[in-house]
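Page 42, continued from yesterday. The earlier attempt failed because a stray header line got pasted into the input along with the sequence. Redoing it now with the clean sequence only.
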Amino acid sequence: MRSSHLCMLSGVLLFSAFAANAQDMHASHPMSHHGAPQAQAQTYQSEGVIKKISPDAITIFHKAIPALNWPPMTMAFALTQGSALPQVKVGDSVDFTFVQNENGYQLVSLTPQR
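This time it went through. Structure tokens are written below.
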């Protein structure tokens, strides 16, 4: 059985995964589309410009994201609950990664471009 945990601590993404005999499990139980263990959420990457900052979300005008067939657009990305607000301001250009979860799209990392 596999368990994953993501959290943001002082602007650093921490990821820990625990797997019991993961290689043996994969060898003895091939993956299938039916009944497959839940996989870790897909992480997407883009760059854009900060348009709005609120306590629980950051709105970004981002470039096209081909992996999702998204054109350039402006959208809000939720912040990780309990995380410190990244040191960015409206108008900053940023690189960012995000995941889709049950609550929408959530930032995983946000880095100002230099």
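Notes: The CA atoms of residues 46 and 96 lie 6 Å apart.
Reminder to self: strip header lines before submitting.
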